[in-house]
């Protein structure tokens, strides 16, 4: 692969549909320090970490949650920051009729800073600590406090800024479209620095935005970010997906993931996908779900509770042992399997499946 360094042994963290270039670039503002990799073809977005970095984060998490002093300092700072974050977003994006460069810089900068708090709630930071916490009440308490904080933090750091027509990013885009005559569609494929340059009278060439939409590789390199875009990077992305087992199989009978909550159940599948394009229609999807259905999602989060309460089991493409899907399933006493990679693509509404929450398997019994 000429654009992606195979020797780093990238491990997949997240996958979402509808993540455009601006979102990708803003997210990399923090994760470049972890030497992260982002790949996307037509906004089907994946995020990766080098294997060594991922292992180091899991090790650090294990030490972090065992150290109450260190944890409390982080926890209190996280809460204090959240208490003022939405007010900052309102003052910089919602209230001004005309945005200044300083408004946008402060907004994007604060979102990057907010991400630096949130990453300590992610599965690639908490899973090893969770496994080690079985006989450690200090770690158990710190992990649960962290999980409860994550419920709030997820909504305020990700949902409000990113998802839906009322999100701060959409509000910002609508105002910038009006100010600079650049369509919202094109602004989605501007990078963070490109947005800043609008205030200096510089617009991105249309070929660049087309290339970024078609395919892109964004490489975090500590203090810098390198971007490659266009058809030239597609082969590298497809090769990485194949090597990582991310290719969606044409025929499969049993899916295997990480067991997150014990139990076995047979039920009917209900797939609910949450991304920037579908966020505003989630409530209707929750209403369509029947009691006893097996919920299948990329991941779940607090807004999914109406669906989780109906579910007889929860299946998620991504996540770990302290993901929302895992914790809620254990609280409800229903089976859960996470890290299934492509469950939302393979399973369809109405399929009958058997979920084994102890083995971490999902068996397709009947396709409808």
Fold and architecture overview:
The chain is of the alpha+beta class and 368 residues long. It folds into two domains: 6-240, no CATH class; 254-366, Glucose Oxidase, domain 1 (3-Layer(bba) Sandwich), CATH 3.50.30.10. Helices cover 47% and strands 18% of the residues. It has 15 helices and 13 strands. The protein has helices spanning 21-31, 51-64, 68-94, 101-118, 123-132, 137-162, 168-180, 184-187, 192-198, 206-214, 234-243, 282-288, 305-308, 324-332, 343-346; strands at residues 10-17, 37-41, 44-50, 215-220, 225-229, 254-256, 258-261, 264-271, 294-297, 313-316, 336-338, 352-356, 361-366. The strands form two sheets. It has an eight-stranded mixed sheet, covered by helices on one side. Strands 1-3-2-4-5 form a five-stranded antiparallel sheet. Helix 3 (68-94) runs parallel beside helix 7 (168-180). The longest helix has 27 residues, at 68-94.
């Amino acid at each position: 692969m000429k654009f992606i360094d195979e020797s780093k042994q990238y491990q997949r963290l997240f996958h979402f549909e509808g993540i455009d270039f601006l979102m990708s670039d803003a997210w990399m503002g923090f994760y470049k320090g972890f030497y992260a990799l982002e790949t996307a073809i037509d906004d089907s977005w994946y995020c990766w970490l080098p294997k060594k970095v991922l292992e180091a984060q899991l090790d650090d998490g294990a030490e972090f949650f065992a150290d109450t002093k260190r944890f409390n300092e982080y926890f209190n700072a996280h809460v204090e920051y959240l208490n003022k974050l939405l007010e900052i977003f309102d003052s910089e994006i919602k209230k001004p009729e005309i945005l200044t460069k300083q408004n946008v810089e402060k907004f994007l900068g604060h979102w990057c800073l907010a991400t630096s708090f949130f990453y300590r709630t992610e599965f690639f930071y908490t899973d090893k600590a969770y496994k080690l916490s079985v006989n450690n009440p200090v770690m158990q308490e710190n992990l649960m406090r962290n999980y409860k904080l994550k419920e709030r933090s997820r909504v305020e750091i990700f949902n409000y800024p990113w998802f839906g027509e009322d999100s701060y990013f959409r509000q910002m885009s609508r105002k910038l479209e009006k100010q600079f005559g650049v369509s919202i569609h094109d602004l989605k494929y501007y990078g963070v620095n490109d947005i800043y340059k609008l205030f200096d009278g510089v617009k991105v060439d249309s070929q660049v935005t087309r290339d970024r939409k078609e395919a892109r590789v964004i490489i975090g390199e500590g203090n810098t970010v390198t971007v490659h875009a266009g058809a030239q990077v597609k082969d590298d992305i497809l090769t990485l997906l194949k090597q990582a087992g991310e290719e969606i199989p044409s025929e499969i009978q049993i899916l295997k993931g990480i067991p997150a909550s014990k139990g076995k159940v047979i039920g009917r599948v209900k797939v609910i996908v949450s991304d920037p394009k579908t966020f505003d229609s989630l409530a209707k999807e929750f209403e369509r779900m029947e009691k006893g259905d097996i919920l299948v999602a990329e991941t779940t989060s607090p807004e999914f509770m109406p669906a989780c309460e109906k579910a007889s089991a929860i299946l998620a493409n991504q996540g770990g042992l302290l993901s929302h899907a895992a914790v809620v399933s254990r609280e409800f006493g229903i089976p859960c399997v996470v890290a299934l990679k492509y469950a939302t693509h393979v399973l369809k509404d109405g399929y009958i499946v058997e979920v084994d929450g102890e083995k971490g398997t999902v068996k397709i019994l009947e396709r409808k």
